[in-house]
Design the sequence.
């Protein structure tokens, strides 16, 4: 089992940047694929990025967001640049036992979730 804690959210203006962190404890984090999702009020939880066999991104964030992984610190990061108001959401990290990109695109592919961190982008 693995426990995930996100941090780094906050309020930023359009065009600004934030870096989210997802710190893991428990079993060896490198044994899991990791993904980021986001959920705006009244909407479904949407895929943002994930790293398994490959690192993949949603089209809406490609070129602006970068996912990275520090295996020594057991932490995954989501660097978010050129932020837009439509990026406003609660951001969740999650861990999956499958490294298949097709599995990592949907919330059902993940076994463990963090509590989420709020990102608000003002216009």
Sequence:
């Amino acid at each position: 089992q693995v426990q995930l804690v996100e941090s780094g959210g906050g309020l930023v203006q359009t065009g600004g940047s934030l870096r989210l962190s997802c710190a893991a404890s428990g079993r060896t984090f490198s044994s899991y694929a990791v993904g980021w999702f986001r959920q705006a009020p009244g909407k479904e939880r949407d895929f943002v990025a994930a790293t398994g066999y490959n690192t993949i991104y949603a089209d809406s964030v490609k070129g602006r967001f970068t996912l990275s992984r520090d295996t020594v610190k057991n932490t995954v990061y989501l660097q978010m640049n050129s932020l837009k108001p439509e990026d406003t959401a609660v951001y969740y990290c999650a861990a999956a036992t499958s490294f298949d990109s097709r599995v990592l695109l949907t919330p059902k592919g993940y076994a463990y979730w963090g509590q989420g961190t709020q990102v608000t982008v003002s216009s």
Q: What stands out?
A: The longest strand covers residues 18-26. Residues 71 and 81 are 23 Å apart (CA to CA).
